[in-house]
Amino acid sequence: MPDDERSAGNGLAFSFEHRRNDGYAEVSVEADGMLARADFHPPIGDGLPIAPDYVGNLLARAGVVSGIQEEAIAEACLGANIDRKSTIALVVARGVPPEPAVPEHVELSPKAAGALARAAESSGEEAPEGDAEREENPVERIDWRERSPFVVVAAGEVLGTLSGERPGSDGIDIFGKPLPAPRLAPPSFVEGENVEFADGTLRARVAGALVIAGNRVAVDPVLRLKNGIGYHTGHVTFPGDIEVSGVVRDGFRVQAGGNAVFRDTLDASDVSVHGDLDCRQGLIGRETALVRVGGSAQARFIESCRLAARGDVRVATAIVSSHIWTLGRVEAGDRGRIVGGETWAARGISCGALGNSAGIRTLVRAGSDFAVQQRLDETRTRLEKLAARTSKLRSIAKERPGARVEAALAASEREELELIKLIETLVERLDVDEGAVVDIHLEANVGVTIEICRVRLDVHQKTGKCRFRLDRNAGKIVTER
After folding, report:
1. What's the CA gap between 217 and 191, in Å, rounded?
2. What does the pLDDT read at residue 18?
3. Per-residue DSSP letter, 96
4. What was the pLDDT predicted at 225?
5. Of 150, 368, 474, 479, which residue is most buried, by most CB within 10 angstroms?
6. How far is CA 310 from the centre of its chain?
7. How far is CA 254 from CA 57, 228, 237, 251, in A?
8. Are 429 and 373 in contact (CB under 8 A)?
9. Closest residue by Cα to residue 210 from 158, 150, 121
């Protein structure tokens, strides 16, 4: 019977002419020569069945000589002849693709590879600068503040592993044509700064930001942000030092495990620095913002900010309407001003001027530990609540005595005694430096209140250059001019 050949997609389709009711098959060959499929149609009535040889002849006409799926063909013929069911697009021949040869190379870890891919994606991606969470589909809303363009790695973390050479193998298509194995040239990564290669692995020698330039893998222990902090960086959490140039946008969290340097004015929302903080221009806070510093802090000025530091706090020009707590000293220089708010320095205060001519209320405290005072305040609040509970339990015990009420009352009274003892201990630890002084180089204005070791002095008359110190024997603060 003459055969029929016609195009099918990018390949060709083959079939034999057949009688109307006979079973028949159509074979289609993919253009790449790696796959042949067949449609099997059952006989109707007394039509002739489909034989596997019939399909084999079709494949031969199509030039298919390799990878023939004989079992699949036999089952499809049986299904057509016995069950009278059609089988569509059955794979009847499959080529064998070549396996490429791969030389020895160092592959990136999944985390490092993800960082490389993320960097490639973000190179053309712009985060919104307005409402970053405003999306047409709220279900797919993205908080861009939680996305970060840099990847932080720990000391000793594996960044890449050596993959051994893999030999390739040749393939063959369904027409019997050999397919030589290609030889791949995957990128191989090498150690850069603060990365070492040993025992077949690339490892970070220090904690820091992962940097991949070309095929070189490095770790920078200092995070350098040249365009500020915003939606393009997300929140910043880094185990080492950070250096920031540019604006820090409102609402972004900054956490540094080392020192932090801000070369422009820091508009702080939530800042935590384990080491020293250096604000080259100034520090401006928000109503709910808190800046926590494990070491010392310095800034050109501090305005409307809440700052807690373990070390000294130094400003060049002014502290305005701020709450400053430090276990060290506050030093505002010979001409610097402290106006408004509350400044608490365990080791003393030095500034040019306190308060202003408008008499704005300005409170400075010296000689006491603010952390102990905070804990003391919290403990007193707990004691007040517990005392109210104990009083209520006593009333209940009088009206409705019982074992459970008596047990609860006894436990509450015991806890009261424990809190009272804790308060006594904290009070003993509160004053840490009776020799702390408040040095004024220019003037102290009306409206200023000075406390040294919980002894208070209100300034009712403007003074010039002077020193306020505690006379413990007299139980008062004296002014030395």
Report:
1. 5
2. 65
3. B
4. 92
5. 368
6. 26
7. 74, 11, 6, 10
8. no
9. 150
CA distance readout (Å), 202 to 112, 117, 136, 158, 184: 11, 19, 43, 6, 22
Answer yes or no: are the C-beta atoms of 239 and 152 closer than 8 Å. Answer: yes
pLDDT, tens only, 21-74? 899 999 999 999 999 999 999 999 889 999 999 999 999 989 999 999 999 999
Do the beta carbons of residue 215 and residue 229 sit within 8 Å? Answer: no
Question: pLDDT per residue over 399-434, tens digit each?
Answer: 888 899 999 999 999 999 999 999 999 999 999 999
Residue that has been written with the tokens 């053309």 in this structure: 124
Are 228 and 131 within 8 A, CB to CB?
A: no
Q: How far apart are CA 12 and CA 10, in angstroms?
A: 7
Q: Rounded CA gap, 37 and 9, in Å?
A: 12
- pLDDT of 106 strictly over 50: yes
The answer to whether residue 134 scores a pLDDT higher than 80 is no
pLDDT at 440: 97
Please, which residues have CB within 8 angstroms of residue 226's CB and are 6 or more apart in sequence? 245, 246
DSSP line for 114-146: HHHHHHHHHTT----SS-TT--SSGGG---GGG
The whole-angstrom separation of Cα 351 and Cα 111 is 51
**pLDDT score, position 289:** 81
Tokens of 441: 């180089």
Q: What is the pTM of this model?
A: 0.71
Other C-beta atoms closer than 10 Å to the C-beta of 260 total 29
pLDDT over 70, % of the chain: 90
DSSP 8-class letter at 50: P
Q: How many CB atoms lie within 10 A of CB 213?
A: 8
Cα end-to-end span (Å), the chain: 125
